[in-house]
Amino acid sequence: MDEHLRLSSLGASVLADAEEIANDMQEWRRDFHQFPELAFEENITASKIVRVLSSIPGMEVYPGFALKTSVIGVLGAEKEGPALMLRASMDADAGDEQTGLPFSSCVPGVVHSAGHDAEMASLLGAASVLSKYGDQLKQKIVFLFQPAGEGRSGAQTLVENKIIEEFNIGRAAAVNWGPDLAYGALFTRRGVMTALSDKIHIDIRGMTGHASEPHTAVDPIMIAANVILTIEAMLSREVDPREPIVVSFGRLEAGEAYNIIPEQANIWGTLRAFDPQVRDFVQGRIETVAPAIAKALRGLASVEYTRNYAQVDNNLDMVDELLRVGVPFFGEDGISMLERPLLMGEDFSFFSNRVPSLFMLLGAGLEYPLHHPRYDVPESMLPLSAAWEAYLALTLAL
Questions:
Q1: Which of 134, 164, 194, 359 is the most exposed place for a label (fewest CB within 10 A)?
Q2: Are residues 189 and 203 in the same domain?
Q3: Residues in domain Peptidase M20 dimerisation (predicted)?
Q4: 224 and 339, same domain (yes or no)
Q5: What is the domain range of residue 358?
């Protein structure tokens, strides 16, 4: 049989199998969504994943590797050679939901607004589908349900505790859902896929006083405002405008009373860039500028700069292999190469820096972006996502 026809036939078969369990995946996704948990607290989520994985024939389940809420499933453990790892993140975000869904988050201040609920349900679906193809499985498949994917470096902890060595992981792949991309299409990129992602914390100290007598105090909120504005202005005047870089401050804390100038203010933000030299320059300038502005305004400031994530780097051979096997699955126009890397940060980089890896986005065609209070995923895409991951496990060359 022609290779293209064989792969097309396999893709259709896997997709049909995924469609048969669409209701199960929908139920799993809604369950995850209704009971979201923050990073390192995914206890209920983990127990649900363990229950589903344990019901899959041939699946070996390893809960709590390196992190108490991690869950790892292994299919085809008897297969020799390195394994292919498929990953889904587990944690939810801080925030309040405004979707009005009957299964909205019942945990105040916690919500799945990044699609992790759907990614977990899809990966469980892929595992369930793959169990029917044991005779066609040519390599061991490791299903990683990873805690703390949202800025808390869960992947780093797993790598540092030798998940790659313990499970003999030779390659890794991950499928995220891209809300602003065309529904049902697959997007990836050769080489660098995501940005460097860092965390910035600036602690500002002033002197408390009454709001009616600001001249007797040193206002840390005023200092914080000047620090933020100066950093943003600096980016437009000291960095080559052809170099993509973003510094955004998303959290500011200061004071307890509306009429009292507080003693302290804290601001937290993030830096995203593609060029390590640009990141180095801006980090140095932030560490210089913030204390200088504070001193000029009679205060003090200290900068804590944390380098969170490196760039996700897609292995070129794996991208070529993706195109070979993916076109029969998605069609000639169903796979697109992104022209530029994404400015998002992704802790999948800890895996891509260690083993050949492939990071992909499945377009969801949504109105609202990630982390929006009205963000919701199209559940009709669950079978497609599950089938694609199962199909990858069956077709990616060893």
A1: 134
A2: no
A3: 200-294
A4: no
A5: 3-194+311-395
| H/E stretch holding 227 | helix 220-238
Question: Are 321 and 301 contained in the same domain?
Answer: no
Which of 329, 343, 346, 338 shows the shortest CA–CA distance to 393? 329
Same domain, 68 and 127: yes
How far apart CA 158 and CA 11 sit, in angstroms, is 32
> In this structure, are residues 160 and 337 in contact, taking their beta carbons and an 8 Å threshold?
no
pLDDT higher than threshold 90 for residue 232: yes
Give the global pTM.
Answer: 0.92
Q: What is the CATH number of the domain that holds 28?
A: 3.40.630.10
pLDDT reported for residue 140: 97
Of 196, 138, 215, which is closest to residue 344 (Cα–Cα)? 196
- Do both 289 and 189 map to the same domain? no
- Cα gap 349→242, rounded to integer Å: 24
Can you give the pLDDT at residue 397? 74
232 is in an annotated binding site: no
- State the total domains in the chain: 2
What integer pLDDT is reported at residue 398 of this predicted model?
A: 65
Are residues 13 and 41 both part of a single domain?
Answer: yes
pLDDT above 90 (res 206)? yes
pLDDT higher than 70, residue 1? no
Residue 304 belongs to domain with CATH number: 3.30.70.360
379 among the known binding-site residues?
no
What does the block give as tokens for 16?
């049909």
116 carries a ligand binding annotation: yes
| Torsion on CA atoms 218, 224, 226, 228, rounded to nearest 10 | 170
Q: How many residues does the chain have?
A: 398
